[in-house]
Amino acid sequence: MGTGRHPQLYFEDGTMTIKASDGTLYNVYRAPLIRQSEFCSAMLTLPNPKQPPLSLTQNAREWFERSRQLGLEGTSDATALPLPEQFTPSEIEKFLDFMFLQPWSPNAPSIDTACAILKLSHFLVVDNGISYARHHLDNHEDLKAVMRLKLGFDYHFVDWITRGFDELVATPIIDLSAEEETLIGWIAYRALARAQAEVLDARLNLAVARIPDVNHCNWCSNHSNCQSEWARMWTSVKGVLGALIKEELPGSEILEKLSTYNHGAMNVECHRRTCDGLKDTEEKVSILREEEAIIDKHATELMRQLGIA
Fold first, then answer.
1. Would the pTM count as exceeding 0.85?
2. pLDDT tens profile 255-282
3. What is the rounded distance in angstroms from the CA atom of residue 149 to the CA atom of residue 183?
4. Which helix (H) or strand (E) is 27 found in, with range?
5. What are 6-15's pLDDT values in tens digits?
6. Average pLDDT of the residues in 67-73
């Protein structure tokens, strides 16, 4: 855009002037910002601004104090409030467009637009903008797990961290690009590597050394045959072992697929009872759900290291 007044977001009857890092000026209205933003309610209360709310980030509090010391009240082009350089003119435009031209548009915004709205809304404590951006990003099928994890870190969205981490554990860490590694950071990369190694170890141990016992029916005439057929199915490359090794399914989902594997000459009723018994155990078969616990453990530890509750 360059220096000068923005063609759509400089309203002649506006009551607050904002300046982007490239010099672009925006003249908008105080009232909606004061009404929707805890930060703006404190910052734009004239003649005596209130103390900044404690919920602000350190970066926002510093900007608040610096602007106040410089006497930049945003009442004219000359005293326009300069937004920090961390916000690009494009991001500012997308946020102000949402606030003053297209609030809660029925058309889903792009990922870039939603992220820009989230970024400025978080800085200015605009709950409506945060809710809007989260709603659309939550349902955006093109939002990659790496970006969801990164956004979770940036804004302390615990559900996004756990969801993104869970999705990334299923992706070989070697497949992450250098850019993606930088995006999530070394601490998260190391947590993912450890979680993947532990999950693989648990899968191998489950597939080879922890074959569940058969739940025989009363009329089973050959317990040893049933057990051997069950073990064959369990350790077959076309059975549980193959699914685990090839990472076709997480252990928890194999529970739902157990009955579909070829159980050979195993007693049909013994097979049914064994499969149903595994699914119906009180803890939903801890041996098949261990990897979920492993992933949760590493995600929780990651958030602890990053200071995220």
1. no
2. 777 777 778 888 888 888 888 877 655 4
3. 9
4. strand 24-28
5. 999 999 998 8
6. 68
Q: Considering only residues 251 and 152, tell me which one the structure prediction assigns the higher pLDDT.
A: 152
Report how far residue 150's alpha carbon sits from residue 168's, in angstroms, rounded to the nearest whole number: 12
Q: In which element (H, E) is residue 8 found?
A: strand 4-10
Q: Cα separation of 48 and 19, whole Å?
A: 22
Burial readout 159-187 (b: 16 or more C-beta within 10 A, e: otherwise): ebbbbbbbebbebebeebeeebeebbeee
- Going from the C-alpha of 61 to that of each of 38, 70, 115, 153, the distances in angstroms are 12, 14, 22, 20
Q: Which of 201, 196, 210, 135 is nearest to 167 (CA)?
A: 196
Can you tell me the distance from the alpha carbon of 73 to that of 68, in angstroms, rounded to the nearest whole number?
A: 7
CA atoms within 13 A on the CB side of 33: 24
- Sign of dihedral through CA atoms 27, 30, 31, 37? positive
Shortest CA distance to 37 belongs to which of 165, 158, 126?
126
The dihedral built from the CA positions of residue 159, 161, 163 and 166, taken in this order, carries a sign that is negative
Contact 140, 163 (CB under 8 A): no
Which residue would you say has higher pLDDT here, 308 or 278? Answer: 308
Spatial separation of the C-alpha atoms in residues 136 and 122, rounded to whole Å: 16
Q: What is the DSSP letter of 214?
A: P
Long-range CB contacts for residues 167-175, cutoff 8 Å, separation at least 24: 168/192, 169/195, 169/196, 169/199, 169/295, 170/247, 170/250, 171/145, 172/196
